[in-house]
């Protein structure tokens, strides 16, 4: 039964990835009525929140947008940076939402940053521990692998409120400052919700896989 749930969750994850790409492409064809590029929307949102010193850089690729908290820079994919679409301003403002979180020390973002060094190590070690544990029938190694994998799962769960909060900040600013008009809110919501769904799906897959590993571990101990 657990295997079936993991497979279903994995299929859901694939569907979520296709959906975010499809939703982004759909609303990338719809120009925002104010004619702002993603860069212009991000710049205005940063400046209005006292973040004039945070630069914005274009990067190659699609959906490669992110906020770099180490160098304090917003990086937007070229389709977002240059285009004047609903998708472009939605994604750009979402990334600025992370910059605002950084400024105000949003607790879940602070926690996420503190977890990252540990999780970065744990996620690299976990697969080898689990593989060695199953190859050599070592419950100790499997147990260690599960502990390390748990850290990666916890990181994904902490990421969820960070992403939802960034989207909420983006939508609020976009409406309050007139980046979008009332009839454009639907498109913005669809783009941001589709993006959030990918994080939900990834977390669900990880949680179910962790539960499966725990069940395997406990059944072998009995």
Shape: elongated
Q: Between the first and last Cα atoms, what is the distance in angstroms?
A: 19 Å
Strand order of the largest sheet: 1-3-2
Number of strands: 3
**Percentage beta strand:** 5-15%
Element string (H = helix, E = strand): HHEEEHHHHH
Low-confidence regions: none
Q: Count up the helices.
A: 7
Structural class: mainly alpha
Rounded to an integer in angstroms, the radius of gyration calculated over CA atoms is 20 Å
Tell me the number of structural domains.
Answer: 1
Biggest sheet overview:
3 strands, mixed
| Fraction of helical residues | over 70%
Mean pLDDT: 93
Keywords: Membrane, Transmembrane, Transmembrane helix
InterPro entries: Zn_peptidase_2
Transmembrane segments: 115-136, 141-162, 196-217
Protein name: Peptidase
Write up what this structure looks like.
The chain is mainly alpha-helical. The chain has one domain. The protein contains seven helices and three strands. Strands 1-3-2 form a three-stranded mixed β-sheet. α4 packs across α6, α4 (86-104) packs across α7 (185-221) and α5 runs antiparallel to α6. The chain is elongated, with a radius of gyration of 20 Å. The relative contact order is 0.16. The model has no long low-confidence stretch (mean pLDDT 93).
């Amino acid at each position: 039964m657990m295997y079936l749930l993991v497979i279903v969750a994995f299929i859901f994850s694939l569907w979520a990835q296709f959906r975010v790409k499809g939703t982004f492409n759909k609303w990338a064809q719809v120009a925002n009525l104010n004619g702002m590029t993603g860069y212009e929307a991000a710049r205005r949102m940063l400046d209005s929140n006292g973040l004039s010193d945070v630069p914005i850089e274009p990067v190659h690729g699609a959906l490669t947008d992110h906020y770099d908290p180490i160098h304090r820079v917003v990086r937007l994919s070229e389709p977002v940076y240059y285009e004047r679409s609903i998708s472009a301003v939605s994604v750009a403002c979402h990334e600025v939402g992370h910059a605002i979180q950084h400024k105000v020390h949003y607790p879940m973002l602070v926690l996420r940053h503190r977890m990252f060094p540990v999780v970065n190590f744990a996620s690299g070690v976990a697969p080898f521990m689990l593989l060695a544990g199953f190859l050599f029938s070592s419950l100790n190694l499997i147990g260690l692998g599960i502990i390390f994998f748990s850290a990666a799962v916890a990181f994904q769960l902490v990421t969820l409120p960070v992403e939802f909060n960034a989207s909420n900040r983006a939508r609020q600013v976009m409406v309050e400052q007139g980046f979008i008009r009332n009839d454009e809110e639907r498109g913005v919501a669809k783009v941001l919700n589709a993006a959030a769904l990918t994080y939900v799906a990834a977390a669900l897959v990880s949680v179910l896989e962790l539960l499966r590993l725990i069940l395997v571990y406990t059944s072998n101990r009995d």
